[in-house]
Amino acid sequence: MADSEDTNAAADVPAKPGGMNKVLPLILIINTLLMVGVLIFVMKKPAAHADGGDEGKAKEGEGEKSEHGSSEKSGHGGGGKEEGAVGPTVRFDNFTVQLKSNDVERYAHMSLELELFDEAGKAIIERRSAPIRDAVLGYLTDRTAEELRGSDGLRDVKTALLKRLEEIVPGKRIANVFITDFIIQ
Known about the structure:
Blueprint: H1 2-12, H2 17-51, H3 53-74, E1 89-98, E2 107-116, H4 120-127, H5 129-141, H6 145-148, H7 150-168, E3 174-184
Antiparallel strand pairs: 1-2, 2-3
Helix pairs in contact: 5-7
């Protein structure tokens, strides 16, 4: 009986793995702290830029000047963002209008999203949604199906809508117009 007690006592005490049991939680804690630090660093950088301060406003003003010049030519603005980066958007669904036509009744259905330069513009756009919808509907009803067809037609629609919407929402809030759904019947 004494032999079996000695064997059980020896089996309960691990020789080398005991040191590893203390190292693993320490490594997990260090990794967690490093990941939290990286997340804080990454999340803080856009927040500081969004606040803008005086320096951010000066840079934003410069972006507006250069964007205005390119907006006329290309139909959409860059706004100083990275290539391919999309800012906050506001979606407008279900524009269905009867197109201008002398012989046949034609209809167009369209949905679009407005890309904004910053989050602050979202509230302004949402408050002005009725005049924005009215401008889009007014523009579409004055078009024929032939004017809206093809990539050239869509590019013209985007350019014209961007100009009209900048009049409704002044202050260079809208960076781009994306047509997300478009059907002519």
